């Protein structure tokens, strides 16, 4: 005597309903490990003593259950791996953006397709996209999606028309003449 349980009967009856209900009903009607063990115990308790459950059927059901559980474990592992890879990709993208902080970048503004350039001040997630926040030459802040950055330089390029780099940071350095002596007493030329 062999009993077969078909888990698709209950879900096929719900296919006439809306899509959302069909999916939630399919999830709710799926048999789990506990359900299988309860069913197996009930089957063993209620079997005909004159015709007990055949060992082959019992072993077959256990093997099927074991395979199903392993497939569920593999699916869960794949889902976890997928999440981990997604998180790793996000971290790698943020690291790439963080390496641009303080550098001059150029790219295309997605809203109006105009060129945008400036010094990267921050990296952030904006609407699910990695974005660099740049300070443009006029001093305003703007957001530029990381995948739209087309040029990265240590400092702004020289403007050929004016010779101006467009960089507003002070790059002048003070020089100290090491040949001058501040102590006239030790200077042989003054004695």
Name a few traits of the molecule.
5-stranded antiparallel β-sheet; 39% helix; SH3 type barrels; disordered N terminus; single chain
What would you say this structure looks like, in words?
- The chain has 191 residues and is α+β, with helices and mostly antiparallel strands.
- It has a five-stranded antiparallel beta sheet with strand order 4-3-2-1-5.
- The radius of gyration is 36 Å and the shape is rod-shaped.
- Strand 3 (129-135) and strand 4 (141-145) form a beta hairpin.
- Among the domains are: 31-92; 99-153, SH3 type barrels (Roll).
- The chain has helices at residues 8-13, 19-29, 33-45, 55-98; strands at residues 104-108, 115-126, 129-135, 141-145, 149-153.
- Mean pLDDT is 72; it is low at 1-27 and 162-183.
- The longest helix has 44 residues, at 55-98.
Strand content: 15-25%
Biggest sheet overview: 5 strands, antiparallel
Strand order, main sheet: write it out. Answer: 4-3-2-1-5
**Number of distinct beta strands:** 5
Shape: rod-shaped
Overall helicity: 25-40%
Content-based structural category: alpha+beta
Mean pLDDT: 72
Poorly predicted segments:
1-27, 162-183
From the alpha-carbon coordinates, what is the Rg to the nearest angstrom?
36 Å
Report how far the terminal alpha carbons are from each other. Answer: 124 Å
Give a quick rundown of the structure.
The protein is an alpha+beta fold.
Write the layout of secondary structure elements.
Blueprint (H helix, E strand, L loop, with lengths): L7 H6 L5 H11 L3 H13 L9 H44 L5 E5 L6 E12 L2 E7 L5 E5 L3 E5 L38
């Amino acid at each position: 005597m062999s009993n077969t349980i078909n888990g698709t009967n209950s879900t096929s009856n719900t296919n006439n309903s809306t899509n959302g209900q069909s999916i939630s009903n399919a999830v709710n009607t799926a048999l789990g490990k506990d359900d299988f063990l309860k069913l197996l115990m009930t089957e063993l308790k209620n079997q005909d003593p004159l015709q007990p459950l055949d060992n082959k059927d019992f072993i077959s059901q256990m093997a099927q259950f074991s395979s199903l559980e392993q497939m569920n474990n593999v699916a869960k592992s794949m889902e976890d791996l997928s999440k981990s890879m997604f998180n790793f990709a996000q971290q790698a993208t943020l690291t790439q953006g963080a390496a641009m902080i303080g550098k001059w970048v150029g790219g295309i503004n997605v809203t109006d397709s105009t060129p945008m350039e400036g010094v990267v001040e921050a990296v952030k997630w904006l609407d699910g996209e990695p974005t660099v926040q740049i300070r443009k030459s006029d001093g305003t802040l703007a957001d530029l999606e990381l995948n739209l950055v087309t040029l990265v330089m240590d400092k702004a390029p020289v403007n050929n028309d004016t010779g101006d780099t467009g960089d507003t940071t002070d790059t002048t350095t003070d020089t100290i003449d090491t040949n001058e002596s501040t102590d006239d007493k030790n200077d042989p030329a003054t004695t």
